[in-house]
Design brief:
Blueprint lengths: L23 E12 L2 E12 L3 E5 L6 H8 L7 E6 L2 E2 L2 E4 L2 E4 L2 H8 L2 E4 L11 H11 L5 H14 L15 H13 L5 E5 L7 H17 L3 E5 L3 H7 L2 E6 L2 E6 L1 H6 L4 H10 L1
Parallel strand pairs: 3-10, 3-11, 8-9, 9-10
Antiparallel strand pairs: 1-2, 1-4, 4-5, 6-7, 11-12
Helix pairs in contact: 3-4, 3-5, 4-5, 5-6
The chain binds adenosine-5'-triphosphate (ATP).
Pfam families: ABC_tran
GO molecular function, one term: ATP binding
Membrane topology: Peripheral membrane protein
Length: 275
């Protein structure tokens, strides 16, 4: 696999054959993103199959977070298309033509995607339970009872069933991040994006959050796209690891392959610096 060719996490993708495999959930097709004239993602192609856990690794500035932000539509690509669940995220089809997606279309596709950020971003003026119930009620239209039942189940899953009546400021960073994970899962997204979710935490709080995510990976069928510098975690949960450099995937493979016997010098250099 060369740095110039399209890459895939789980299914082959070629420029000539953008056909959708039955189980493909995410596809980046020739995506280019520039900031202030700097090309951050360069004609990027990759796909992720439903239910897989894919980790993005690579040096700082290689564009990993930008990929997650594109999926959240926090930024838009300059060129190329992104599909989630067979629907264009960036575009919609009108009258047989692809046109830039409108807000309504983007909102619909985005319902399938949840994200947990480095900073927990909880609503400070809402108690823990309310933080988790808010979007299912407001966005999905769940009744308060349904949303509360869902929230309590998730709080149990992240080990915080007894903290539902606290305000976020009364919780440790690790606990706040576990609430943020529950909040993302409460929308029952098909895809969970994780962006360096432990890097703002004190070291002693990291393991608890990673254990919760290991549980999520093991016990749900959610598709995970994860940016992390926690290589042991990446090794544990990933079906596939994508190594980024210079706005491209330079190598992809199983964690055993990437961490044990990578093909690329850049992968070897990067891993020897971080492991
Ligand atoms: N909104 C923005 N405006 C200008 N430049 C940006 C913006 N977002 C990202 N960049 C730049 O794009 C490049 C890629 O950033 P990105 O955060 O995607 O990299 P990364 O691989 O996630 O890095 P890190 O591991 O340090 O988080 C960086 O040079 C960054 O400064």
């Amino acid at each position: 696999m060369s740095a110039e060719s399209p890459h895939t996490a789980n299914t082959p993708v070629t420029d000539a054959n953008p056909a959708v495999d039955g189980s493909e959930l995410i596809r980046f097709d020739k995506v280019t993103k520039r900031f202030a004239g700097n090309t951050v993602l360069d004609n990027l192609c990759f796909s992720v199959d439903s239910g897989k856990h894919v980790t993005l690794i690579g040096p700082s500035g290689s564009g990993k977070t930008t990929i997650l932000r594109l999926l959240m539509t926090l930024v838009k690509p300059d060129e190329g298309t992104i599909k989630v669940g067979g629907d264009y995220l960036t575009h919609e089809e009108r009258g047989g033509k692809l046109v830039p997606a409108g807000e309504k279309h983007i909102r619909e596709v985005r319902k399938n995607i949840g994200m947990v950020f480095q900073q927990f971003n909880l609503f400070p003026n809402m108690k823990v339970l309310q933080n988790i119930m808010e979007a299912p009620v407001q966005v999905l239209g769940l009744s308060k009872d349904e949303a509360e039942a869902r929230a309590r189940e998730l709080l149990d899953m992240v080990g915080l069933a007894d903290r539902c009546d606290e305000y976020p400021s009364r919780l440790s960073g690790g606990q706040q991040q576990r609430v943020a994970i529950a909040r993302a899962l409460a929308m029952r997204p098909q895809v969970l994006l994780l962006d360096e979710v432990t890097s703002a935490l004190d070291p002693e709080l990291v393991a608890g959050v990673l254990d919760v995510l290991r549980d999520v990976a093991r016990t749900t069928d959610i598709t995970m796209l994860c940016v992390t510098h926690e290589m042991n975690f990446a090794r544990d949960i990933s079906d596939q690891v994508l190594m980024f450099d210079g706005g491209k995937v330079v190598e992809s493979g199983s964690p055993e392959k990437i961490f044990g016997d990578p093909d690329h010098d850049r992968t070897r250099e990067f891993l020897s610096a971080v492991l």
